[in-house]
Amino acid sequence: MVGVTGSGAATTAGGSGVPWLARLPAGLFGMPVGIFGLAGAWRRAAAFGWPAAAAAGNTLARVAVTLLVLLLVLYVAKALRHPKAIAGEFQHPVAGALMALVPLSLLLCVVYYGAPQDPGWMALTLVALLLQGIVAMRVVRTLATGELPATAVTPALYLPPAAGGFVGAMALGTLGYPGWAALVFGMGLASWALLEIRVLNRLFEGPMPEALRPTIGVEIAPPSVATLAAAVVWPALPGEVLIVGLGVAAGPIVAVLARYPWWSRTPFGIGFWSFSFPLAALASSVIEVVRRGGWPPLVGGVALAIASLVIAFLAVRTIALLVRGRLLGAPMAPLSFATEPLSSRQDSP
Question: pLDDT of 311-333, one tens digit each?
Answer without folding.
Answer: 999 999 999 999 988 887 655 55
